[in-house]
Amino acid sequence: MKIAKNQAVQIHYTLKNDAGEVLDSSDGAEPLAYLQGHGNLISGLEAALEGKRAGDKLNVSIAPADGYGVHDASLVQEVPRSAFKGIDDIQEGMQFRAESNQGPRMVTVTKVTEATITVDGNHPLADQTLHFAVEVVDVRAATEEELSHGHVHGPGGHHHH
Ligand code: ZN
C-alpha cells in the first residue's frame, strides 16, 4: 500500500540540521504515527513521503519555507518584565505559551534585561534547513474516527481516555 491522503502511516525518523547535529529522532522509541494529508507533519516531509511504501527509506532535505517557516521579525517582541508576574527566574531559552493575534502560540525567551524580556514567537527551527532520514514502517487505511479527528490513534499516535 502506498502512502496517500487519508492513510495512517508509521515512520522512524532522524532529523539533523545543516551542521549534522541530531535535533530529533524516533530512535529507541515507538515509530511516529501520522495521518497523511492532514498537516500532521511539515509540508515538505509529507510531500516527500507521498507514494512511498512500508520498508522504503529516504533522505530528504527541506527548505525553511516547507519546514518550520522563515523567521518573521514581527513575531519578536520586547515586553516589560511585569508581563511575567509571578515568574522570578526567567532565562534565555525558556518557553511559554502566550496569547497572540493568531491565538495561543509558544514563544521562546531570547533576551533578558533588568526591565524587559524579549520573546520570539517563531518556531525554534524557523530558518533551518531540515535533513530527515526516514524509514516507512507501516501504511494502512485510516479509520473513520481517525479521519474525523485528523490524527492517528494507537501506538505512536494520539491516545484518548
Ligand atoms: Zn483522536
* CATH architecture classification name of the largest domain: Roll
The total of helices stands at 2
Question: What is the level 1 CATH name of the largest domain?
Answer: Alpha Beta
State the total count of DSSP E strands: 9
Low-pLDDT residue spans: none
% residues in beta strands = 35-45%
- At the fold tier of CATH, the topology name of the largest domain is Chitinase A, domain 3
Number of domains: 2
Portion in helices: under 10%
Question: What order do the helices and strands follow?
Answer: EEEHEEEEEEH
Using only C-alpha atoms, the radius of gyration works out to: 19 Å
Structural class from helices and strands? mainly beta
Distance between the termini: 30 Å
Please state the overall shape, judged from the principal axes of the Cα atoms: elongated
Largest sheet: 5 strands, antiparallel
The distinct bound ligands, ions and cofactors come out as: zinc ion
The residue-averaged pLDDT reads 93
